[in-house]
Structures are given as structure tokens and as C-alpha cells.
Amino acid sequence: MITDRIDNITRIPENYRSPVPPAPKSVKIELTARCDFQCFFCATGYKLREKKDMEWALFARLAREMREAGVEELGLFYLGESFLSKDLVRAIKFAKTELGYPYVFLTTNGRLAKFDAVRACYEAGLDSLKFSFNWADPEQCKEITRVDAFDTVVQNIKDARRARDEVAAETGHRGGLYASSIEYDGEQLVRMKEAVALIEPSVDQHYWLPLYGQAGLTAGARGTVPVAGNIGRAANKRDPLPCWSIFTEGHVTYDGKLSACCFDHDGRFNMGDLTKTPFVEAWNGTAFQKLRMANLAKDVRGTACEQCVAYQDHKVDVARAD
To answer: What is the pLDDT of residue 322?
Structure first.
């Protein structure tokens, strides 16, 4: 199940607890930085960096380079919505058939994940599609995302099940279909559980995630109190330090920057330019080594990680895009 894979990535094996760990088993690569939602709990809606698409030649080179380095799981998304990318299906097929990635996965907000688009992804070999489902009703969806999409996403999840099952019956390839939701508290959690009941029969597994502070950028938004760092999923939380993200998973932006963080919306976690530096060299470069040593010492003061772990002491003023 998808939670097994998540837990394997968020657990830092002993041989990875090093300033120079092996190449990560999993990498997320940003086909596009664009997103059609502006959720208050996500800093993607802030004007902190350019939002463009990755050039195909760069994607193809990096995907091949990472596979040769030993990467086994390729996520075709990072901070953007990959159903906005014209190259999504092409990228899935390339990763599976030409490069032989054992596992290619994708997370979506769901609005554009319509039947034909999802079916094409599974036909291309997609191993896992996960919907982020974080609103209790149509009004709340529009309030949170600035898009009237609740009913569309619910229907798309149901249609995704049909698309997946059709492809499985025709080809024998049965990719996974999943959904996650933020585990709010109080009345909101009760409402969320009612909404999840609408989609749960259509997915293979649903799981809950903590509310993250997005490297400190969204901490305190609308009065919410996020967890410090990225502690994995709600049912199997990890310690915020050392952060698993800088040891076991790579993150590549649309313009080829290797980031140390799941939530690098402003570029402060840039560990190397992969348009100029080979992946393995950047993965174990000086910048990454220093950040890992600070995490292993559980003292990230003065590093890019400080604001994420100690968000309550570090407020950042940002303006949401209109």
C-alpha cells in the first residue's frame, strides 16, 4: 500500500544517516511549477519564484541520470500541478518503458484529473495516482483554494477508479489509486470524515497527513498551528530532526535546481544546479553535507531548516497573489 512506501521513505536507514548518503531511492521532479489552486496552507500561491514548465530535454536527461544513479521511485510532480503539463503522459511512458523505473507516481489536486487524462496516465504505465483532498464541502473548497472544484474533484476520483479498472482489465497493469487529507481537529475533522466517506469507496487507500508549515512560510495562516518540520503521515509521525527529506528523497525544480526540502517555495534550500552539475555530485555536494551534518546534530540554527523547525519564532511576511 502507499503508506508502506511513505513510511519507508520517511524512515532514515542507518546507512543514510551520513553527510554523504547513497543516492535516494525516490525523487520528485517538477514537470511544472504552475498550479491552478491557491490554498492557504500551501505557499505555492505566494509570488516567491517563477512558475514555469520543465523543458523536455532537461527532464529526459535528469530522469536518465537519476535512474543510472540508482533512483527507483520517480514522482512526476513537486510543488506544481502536473496535469497542467503537456508532457505528463509522455514523461510517464518515457520513465517506465525507456528508463525502466520500477515505480512512477503522481499526486494531484484533482480538478484536471478527468477520466481521459487519468486513463492515459495508467495506459502509459503510472504506478500510483494520489488525490490531495482537503475540504469538507463545496463552499470550503472554494474558500480554501479560490476555485469552485469540490464536486468536480469528487467525480474525478470516482471516474479515476473506472479508468484505472478499465486499463487493468485490458492490459493487466493495475496502478494504485489513493487519497490523502489533512488531519484537522475538532469539528473540522468530523466534517472532513464525512467528506472522505464520499470518495473512500473509490480509492485503494485513504490516509491522513498533519498540517505542515511549509518550511515556515504558512505557519499560523488563518490561525492554524502546523507541525514543525515534515514529520511524515499522521499515523506514523517521525521526529522533525534529523529531517528525512534531506537524506532519503530528492526534489528537483522545473529549472533544474536540486532542493533539500519538500516545501522549497522560495529557493532557500537550493543545493545545486543540475543544469551544470551531475545529480550525484550535487546530492553529496558541500552545501548538502553541511545541512545534513546540522540535522544529524539536531542543531539547525543558522541553516535553511531553522525556520521550518522553529516556525513559531520566525515569522515571514509574504503576500498572496491575487
So the answer is: 36
